[in-house]
Amino acid sequence: MIEATLPGARRRPRLASVRRFVGTSWLNLIGVTIVGLVVFVAIFGPWITPKSPTNIDLLQRLQPPSLHHLFGTDDFGRDIFSRVLAGARISLEVAAVILLSSVAVGTLLGIVSAMVGGLVDEIIMRTTDLFLAFPALILAAAIAATLGPSLTHTMLALSTVYWPWYARLARGQVLSLREREFVLAARVSGASTSRIVFRHLLRNVFPLLIIQASLDVGYAILFTSSLSFLGLGAQPPAPEWGAMMTDARAFLRDYWWYPTFPGLALAFTVLGFNLLGDGLRDWLDPRLRGSLGGV
Amino acid sequence: MGRLILRRLVFMVFVLWGVTLITFFLARVAPGDPARLIAGPHANAAALANIRRIYGLDKPLTTQYVRYMTDLAHGNLGQSFVTRRSVVTDLADYFPGTVELAVSALLVGSILGLLVGVASAMRRNSAVDVGGRFLAIAGLSMPAFWLAMLFQLLFYSRLGWFPFGGRLATGVVAPPHVTGLYTVDSLLAGQWSTFVDAVRHLVLPVATLSLAEIGLMARIVRTSMLEVLGEDYVRTARAKGLSGSRVLFRHSLRNALLPAVTVLGLEVGLLAGGVFLVETIFAWPGLGRYAYDAIRASDYNATMGVTLLIALVYVGMNLLVDLVYLFLDPRIRYT
Fold it and tell me: Are the CB atoms for A284 and B255 separated by under 8 Å?
């Protein structure tokens, strides 16, 4: 059976490639460093947090930053530094679930749309048009509010917002790939449609989807925290950055460290992923322009 | 071209119908009980049943939807369960506030984003470019709600330069209603001090909202400027010995601005999300805050009305952008 892969589709991350990528621009270096740090904290957080992120100590409430509490303490006397570190894991896990589910559903529907065509294609594409015609955060907030405030529902709401982008991307790719010689060759040699999809098309569509997903990680984290901030996502006492900032609002005037550090962690993380995604896009595929984020 | 416009208009109607469908059924499966909301926590079963009957909440979902659509066709969006006023009246009250905020942010964001994008492209790979790109990505990465809080902390609590929130200071009477935009109305009425107060109230929310707009615009303008600068006609213009500014304004920028027009549609989407968060924090009486309150209180009619209006503005803006694009780019017009 003939198999083919477009150049770059089988590229494996090698140290030399990473070095070349980082060497291309200062912004790539900053992006890789921030993302590396956040991923490290998310994985090893429980072992490096100095205190329990949920441990209440009312005698220590609203203490300013000090050597004992690097980012100070909140109104329950909890160590903000430990809570910020614990928040990294929540944000990355949530973003991973949102993007994995959106990519899976979007790719599946995009491929079905391109391969079946006709009425099915029309229905799927008009449905994506409908979802894309809605400002993302408003739709996600409406869904999250309908389902009831929780982090799981936030993930579901944001997946609902993101999948149409991947469906369109996958459909576009499959439409152009299915006319390529290697697919025609597979078809001529008697391969079934499912074999063509799984063995030939999917592996060529994935690199593009991965680039797009890397561009969207930052925004998925930002949207999750925005919904938590509005009271529609993570609920207390979860150390989620957006939820921490909601709690901090009442103390804004006299206790600057309370809202500042969780927000800084969030801004820093989103910036890192956006720099990395942007750099990756330029580096791997200069033709791919524009981002989905924030819209 | 006429057929293209017609197709877009038909699509717009389809999208708006889809929006009513999604929001209606989403709102109806929400866990909150609107009858309880209207009747109050101490109402008995008979009172609740009575309210369900009056508002048609005891009818099957499809019947409720048909009734809603019939009312909608007559310009009636129902009554808000919370404010006890017609949703249309509520929206008319809150809409100008959001327009004033959003248009200001769009103007500031687009102009500054354009400048950053052009500067970045003109000095590619220089410190200006790296700085400009960093600023653009940072603008898109900043959590609006965090930035809003930091601005309040710094410019209200510490420095006292700008007010904490709202559209006008307590005690300042709103200018006579003409457009609903306090800055414009106060100027029309010659109330200079009210104008200054309205502008002071706009500064922090607009600064918060426009950062992301700057980021989005700067990125697109940079990319399209780089493409245009590599074109043969720009090289020819340079080879003819034209001055740098003439090459920039007459040959490059005019063409590079085309994609920037399409970004305006995306910017409105970005603004809708931003307004939602920023109005909540700055206690700005606008659609975002109204939507937030409506969603939190399970206020069906208000939620549907406000989302429908936001979708209408968003889709309408994108249609307008497409038409402007058609007008600007003859290649699309004649295909």
Answer: no
Terminal C-alpha separation, chain A: 43
Q: d(Cα B65, Cα B24) in Å, to the nearest integer?
A: 7
Q: What is the mean pLDDT of residues B127-137?
A: 87
Distance between CA atoms of residues B186 and B184, nearest Å = 6
The end-to-end CA distance of chain B, in Å, is 8
pLDDT digits (tens, 9 = 90+) for A35-71: 999 999 999 988 888 888 888 888 888 889 988 888 9
Least Cα distance to B2 among B334, B328, B313, B316 occurs for B334
Residue in A252, A267, A271 closest to B153 by CB: A252
Of A148, A260, A294, which has the smallest distance from its Cβ to B140's Cβ?
Answer: A294
Which residue in the block uniquely carries the two structure tokens 């090459």? B247
Please name which of A78, A80, A168, A79 lies closest in space to residue A131, comparing C-alpha atoms: A168
Q: Name the β-bridge partners of A79.
A: A73
Q: pLDDT (tens digit, 9 = 90+) per residue, B296-328? A: 787 878 888 888 888 888 888 878 887 887 777
The token duo for A40 is 């490290």
SS3 A8: coil
Listed by number, the residues of chain B in 16-75 with a beta carbon closer than 8 Å to a beta carbon of chain A are 18-19, 22-23, 26-27, 29-31
* Residues in Cβ contact with A63 at an 8 Å cutoff, skipping those fewer than 6 apart: A69, A72, A73, A77
Contact yes or no for A270 and B143 at CB 8 A: yes
- Residue A41 contacts residue A85 (beta carbons within 8 Å): yes
Token pair listed for A267 = 């801004």
A290 CB neighbours in chain B (<8 A) are 220
Q: So what's the ipTM on this one?
A: 0.81
| Chain-centroid distance, C-alpha B186 | 23
The whole-angstrom separation of Cα B333 and Cα B1 is 6
Per the CB < 8 A criterion, the answer to whether A41 and A91 are in contact is: no
- Give the mutation candidate from B137, B155, B156, B287 for the A interface (greatest A CB count, under 10 A): B137
Burial B203-230 (b: 16+ CB within 10 A, else e): ebbbbbbbbbbbbbbbbbbbbbbbebbe
pLDDT for A293 equals: 35
Give how far Cα B280 sits from Cα of A145, B42, B74, B316, Å: 16, 30, 31, 25
State the DSSP code for B177.
Answer: P
Omega prior to B176 cis, within 30 of 0: no
